[in-house]
């Protein structure tokens, strides 16, 4: 059908009005809005419908989606991009190209809704690999390695957070990141799915992050996200797609002992991300692979460059995904409500002597040295925080050190006797220790004092290179 035919007699307009699996794109900013709905049966897109408002090109693009996708195998539908929509309409001019972009985005949101509901079950294939793609070089390299191995590769990107005040271009899970990752996957010839997990991420990760700071703690949202949100959702999708495995771009490995699989440190410590994966369970690891675990970053970039991937030299973001371009303090002010609003309080020493004032204990973390606003004869560090009194206690580095750390919310993948060392924060070197089970958790008895054991942070429990458990730091004593 030509552009004029799609415009005058659009296919599927008004169909599937009440269908549960739909996606919308556009809105007030551009004045064009399109909603696409799908019905998936037996691995095919059995029916497609759309509604559109705004310019005629958007209506025509919705009809083109119906022509392209209705009756198509699911994985073929997941390859549909704006270029195919435009081509179906005879090639859209630059002024109308946005209609194809909106229609493609709405389609993929609808397919993602069906995927999130588990509304399909493709026949299992030992050569099918689902790859988690963020739009960065690491996940792209993981996908390329799977392609090079001859696998049938499918990509998934998680949409976890949308906030106009953050920089979506620097986040791995924003709407902008989803669009970028999808374009990258399609450019590699890979079908792509998006899972919208914003509600779960807000409830399980962001709310916990805000509550932790309000309570005087320093939570680690990445470990929690991997343990409670990301991997469960992606592995469920892998099952629906009949994929034998899920591959990610993490720098870690999987090893097996007599009891099953465990996370193992990456071959090169400088990039090791095993700490972030400490909550993963054995049954999850049975279906996971980390193809970059034996590589260094320059080798990964070279691999991507040799494959002609456009993200080969893309800069890495150092921010938490939901803080990108914003900063922790601004984020907490914006989303924390009254509990994280500015509130004057005292900065005192161990003896309770007033040294300075502050505007909220949640602006500080245990172990912090810079930005205290306190002059002293020696460098001062945050030793503790009291959320009830809104008081921050500072002292010397020697006062900060501790040899005993109590853990709560402990997960032991192996018996406590297997714990030989603990990493008390990301990028920290493991400290040799004993793990002693207690009624309320586990006590770590460190062989040498640790400078920082911040309540709320994760302690990753190690047996040489193997992650055998983790727990949340509850308190420490010098």
Structure description:
The protein has 478 residues and is α+β, with helices and mostly antiparallel strands. The chain has 4 domains: 3-116, Sufe protein. Chain: A; 125-249 and 291-323, HUPs (Rossmann fold); 342-398, Adenine nucleotide alpha hydrolases-like domains (SH3 type barrels), CATH 2.30.30.280; 400-477, Beta Barrel (Elongation Factor Tu (Ef-tu), domain 3), CATH 2.40.30. Helices cover 29% and strands 28% of the residues. The protein contains 13 helices and 20 strands. It has helices at residues 3-8, 56-69, 74-77, 82-88, 97-116, 137-148, 175-187, 198-214, 221-240, 282-285, 297-306, 328-335, 397-400, and strands at residues 22-26, 33-41, 44-53, 125-132, 152-159, 192-196, 243-247, 252-257, 260-265, 288-289, 345-348, 354-358, 381-386, 391-395, 402-412, 421-423, 431-438, 441-450, 458-463, 466-477. The strands form 5 sheets. Strands 15-18-17-16-19-20 form a 6-stranded antiparallel β-barrel. A 5-stranded parallel sheet has the order 6-5-4-7-10, sandwiched between helices. A hairpin with a 7-residue loop joins β16 and β17 (431-438). α4 packs across α5 (97-116) and α8 (198-214) packs antiparallel against α9. The longest helix has 20 residues, at 97-116. The radius of gyration is 25 Å and the shape is globular. The relative contact order is 0.09. The model has no long low-confidence stretch (mean pLDDT 92).
